[in-house]
Amino acid sequence: MSEYGVLALAPPLLAIGLAMYTRQVLVSLFAGVWIGALMVAGWNPIAATALSIDWIVEVVRDPFDTRFLILILFMGAGAAFIYRSGGVIALQNWIGHRVNTARDSQILTWLIGIFIFFDSYTSTIVTGNATRELAEDNYSSREMHAYALDSTTSPVTTFGPVSNWIGYQVSMIIVGFEAARVTLDDLGLSAFGLFLQSIPWNIYCLLAFFMVGFIAITQRFYGPMLDAEWRARSRKETIREDATPLSDVSSDVGEPSEQNPTLVNFFAPILALLVVGLVAMWWLGGGHEPGVDVATAFQETDVALGLLYGAFAFMVVGMAGALAFRTMSLEEASDTIIDGFKTMMIAVAIIVLAWAIGHAADQVGTADFIVDVLVGSGVPGSFLPILIFAAAMFVAFTTGTSWGTMAILTPLAIPLGYELADASILPVVLGVLFGGAIWGDHCSPISDTTVMSSIFAGSDHIDHVNTQIPFACTAAGITVVTLLLYGIGLTSPFVLLPFAFIATAVAVVALNKWDANRKGLPEVMPTTDEIDGGVDTEPASGDAATRRDRSIGNGSYGVLETIPLVAVGIVVAYLGLVFVFATFGG
User: Fold this and answer.
1) What is the pTM for the complete model shown?
2) Which stretches are transmembrane (predicted)?
3) Angle of helix 120-137 relative to helix 142-159, nearest 10 degrees?
4) HEC profile for 173-220?
5) Contacts (Cβ under 8 Å, ≥6 apart) of 368
6) Which of 38, 272, 447, 567 could crosslink 313 through cysteines, CB 3.0-4.6 Å?
7) Averaged over 300-325, what is the pLDDT?
């Protein structure tokens, strides 16, 4: 147990609470760091201030963190070249006539995120850049764009089939068995095989991924996202009037060049990022050495360095294309690099302070306190998955790191599962642990992956968190119900997973109907053209909701439209392959 007791929760909870209340993320994060330092410094405010600065310097000097910060800057410059060189204009000329509504752009974001399964950062960056302007042009709110990025990329990278996330999770399974003093050979298992068995039990991630597509296709929103989408469609404001986007390429970099816009300037930098990043991670993990398979290479790789190489290629190829096609001069290209760096400054500051919060939480024993209270409470073996899921959610929410949560809990969860039940429960425990860790990432404003989604959607960060939380909590709530059924004896994933998907769809529709009726808004969000044909574009509330002119009815979307049909077909095929992989791959 932490020596500070319940006060160990103070640094992260203060930062999160202040950020949600004041919307001043930087000040709130520093306040959390300072409170942690105040506790460690014996309640001496001067020493606490000095210690806070020392902690910030310490996290920045960490090799992984330093590489990641430079990576973020290179990404900003590369995105600036794609925008300013006219690559985005070329993309709009090519695909714009096929993506005609906000619904189309949202489904496309979900679909692209599936194909970049090897790293969540890369997926967020590439998918965000590829679809942001299409979302903007079709009046999809930036909050929805950020949600689609955040709740697609992390879940997909946990399934693979190959990703740095999987490599990390497999390494944590090995650590967990070392803590249990049981060898995998004794159980006739491999770490990778056990990971594959855990995929059907990663219920939260499966539901979170499913919800993005279901909400985008049906256009049924609820909570703050309903208000955000109505604002974007009815008033054509894709971002709240007084919001502060973490990155806004159009305002920070300038207008795109209309001189010879070409798709090469859009796709070549992204292709360079993907190829160089993927090959670099494979190489750094020893993939070129005899006897090292792909899964092992991604497990052992230096993720930050591999992605840094990819990000540098992203920037250089963007600059080369801009110069080769003469869309800008050398001086303009140099200015674009600096402007691209500038777009990332707020995001870099938030990420550094989020890391410092994590360091402060570690110093005061936040995770130790949570684990001792939740995991040490003692429950019947069949209900252990619910406890592990709750512990993972809370640890990840308060520390802002899913990987850190996995590192903290896996060495505890595997011995507990083995002792309280038997080896058969281990895939369940691991699946819910990985899912709970990602729920915490999705809901915590101090999570780096959540910050990244806000960056590349151009969203206000707190707006993204506020609009995503109700959706994440819906998926988590259905997960808890499913685990309760497991606890009382219904243990087949072939029964529980279909139940979970159906229950999630029913919950989304029910919450949408209730919230839309309460606010006097359409249940199925109409397009801007449909709204323009109505007479009332201001959202109503309270008694006014019952009096407003309801001539703006529900949106009307074709059942057999190309984009949703293609998306559903690809997703079904993808999930089918994942489950085949999980069943026979080990």
Assistant:
1) 0.79
2) 6-22, 29-48, 68-95, 107-126, 201-223, 263-284, 304-325, 337-357, 369-397, 469-488, 494-511, 557-584
3) 150
4) HHHHHHHHCCCCHHHCCCHHHHHHHHHHHCHHHHHHHHHHHHHHHHCE
5) 1, 2, 8
6) 272
7) 87
Tokens linked to 55 = 């902690």
DSSP type of residue 1: -
For 251-281, how does the pLDDT look when each residue is reduced to its tens digit (9 = 90+)? 566 667 777 788 898 889 888 888 888 898 8
- Measured CA to CA in angstroms, residue 394 lies from 68, 74, 440 at distances of 25, 33, 7
323, pLDDT greater than 90:
yes
In residues, how long is the chain? 586
Does residue 208 belong to any structural domain of this protein? Answer: yes
CA angle (399 as vertex; 301, 364 as ends), nearest 5: 110
Q: At 523, phi and psi to the nearest 5?
A: -70, -50
* 512 Cβ neighbours under 8 A, 6+ residues apart: 220, 221, 222, 226, 523
Q: Tokens standing for 323?
A: 């110069």
Six-digit token pair at 574?
């993808």
Residue 46, classed as helix, strand or coil, is helix
Enumerate residues 6+ apart whose C-beta is below 8 A from 530. Answer: 552, 555, 556
CA gap 517, 530 in Å, rounded: 19
Burial class, 154, CB count within 10 angstroms (exposed 0-12 / middle 13-18 / buried 19+): buried
Domain range for 179 is 5-241+254-371+380-527+569-584
> 352 falls in which pLDDT band (50, 70, 90)?
confident
Q: How many CB atoms lie within 10 A of CB 175?
A: 15
Q: Which residues contact 90 (CB under 8 A, 6 or more apart)?
A: 261, 262, 263, 265, 266
* pLDDT tens sequence across 156-167: 888 866 666 776
Residue 83 counted as domain residue: yes
105 found inside a domain: yes
* Residue 56 · residue 33 · CB < 8 Å: yes
Q: How many domains does the chain have?
A: 1
Pair 354, 397: CB distance under 8 Å: no
Q: What is the pLDDT of residue 476?
A: 97
Q: 248 lies in a domain?
A: no
503, 505, 436, 427: which is closest to 200 by C-alpha? 427
Contact between 118 and 298 under an 8 Å Cβ cutoff? The reply is: yes
Are 15 and 22 in contact by the 8 Å Cβ rule? The answer is no
Residue pair 475/155 in contact by the 8 Å Cβ criterion: no
CA angle 338, 105, 103 (to 5 degrees): 145
Return the amino acid letter for 40: V
Mean per-residue pLDDT, 458-466 = 92
Taking the CB of residue 330, how many other CB atoms lie within 10 A of it? 10
- Contacts of 367 by beta carbon, 8 Å cutoff, 6+ apart: 361, 395, 398, 399, 404, 405, 408
